[in-house]
Amino acid sequence: MLSRRAKAAFYTVAGPLMKANGKLYRHFRAPQEGRVRVHLGPGRDRYLDGWIKVDANIFSGKADVWADLRNPLPFHTDSIDSIYSHHMIEHLPDIEFHFREVYRCLKPGGAYRVGGPNGDSAITKFVEKDKEWFGDFPDKRTSIGGRFENLIFCRQEHLTILTYSFLDEIMTKTGFTALHACNPVKETNYPEMFRECLLKEFETDFATPHTLIVEASKPKRTPGA
Ligand SMILES: C[S@@+](CC[C@H](N)C(=O)[O-])C[C@H]1O[C@@H](n2cnc3c(N)ncnc32)[C@H](O)[C@@H]1O
């Protein structure tokens, strides 16, 4: 893991370049028709064939679009069928803005599958004092508090706590409908869109999953409305 300082330096130097690259991509290359699927923050390996991968990391990863996801998404309004992100949004300073951007870019009837560290499960397991549930990444910790802190803040990489009610509040406010929490790996309400994503997700605890996964859709427009 890059140190926080190295990461801040990277975004300071590369931020303006990524901003310009995102704008150029949106203007000249972003698809305007056909089936469009976008994977935000795929990281180093969990790639999905046929999905447009957007990431800031082009050193150890293989992004199709080099862009900073703190900025407006590099896609046209109403242009994407499905958007997927897994353990990415907790790194963003303004997730309400992120959900507004995702909503803008989705076609009416399109859907977002989003996942990140499960704050609800972490609180339950903290109260139960289940140290083993937490593991000890990124820092070796032996206390329940230290392990809880690891998962929630991840050496200050994470900027928010993801709980279902919080996502429900901001996604519903944004306009998303049909919101539901999924049991990771096993479930999607949109198999034609997200079936292949399930294969990339791993979970060892199906009762109290480590990853909170939520799906929601942008409602179709009703004629005359
Ligand atoms: C913890 S990794 C998750 C990788 C993968 N999705 C997974 O589930 O294993 C977070 C990913 O989001 C990307 N990311 C985080 N903040 C970003 C930003 N502001 N702009 C672009 N990519 C970002 C990182 O570069 C990294 O690839």
Description:
- With 225 residues, the protein is α/β, with parallel strands linked by helices.
- It has one domain: Rossmann fold (3-Layer(aba) Sandwich).
- It has seven helices and seven strands; from the N terminus they run H-E-E-E-E-H-E-H-H-H-H-E-H-E.
- A seven-stranded mixed beta sheet has the order 3-2-1-4-5-7-6, sandwiched between helices.
- Helix 2 (95-105) links the parallel strand 4 (80-86) and strand 5.
- Helix 3 packs antiparallel against helix 5 (144-153).
- The chain is globular, with a radius of gyration of 18 Å.
- Bound molecules: S-adenosylmethionine.
- The site of S-adenosylmethionine has 15 residues, from loops.
Q: How many helices in DSSP terms?
A: 7
- Globally, the shape reads globular
Classify the fold: give the CATH topology.
Rossmann fold
C-alpha end-to-end distance:
49 Å
Bound ions, cofactors and other small molecules, one mention each: S-adenosylmethionine
Element order, helices and strands?
Answer: HEEEEHEHHHHEHE
Oligomer: single chain
Low confidence ranges: none
Number of strands: 7
The appropriate CATH architecture is: 3-Layer(aba) Sandwich
Largest sheet: 7 strands, mixed
Q: Which structural class matches the secondary elements? A: alpha/beta
CATH C-level label:
Alpha Beta
Rounded Rg: 18 Å
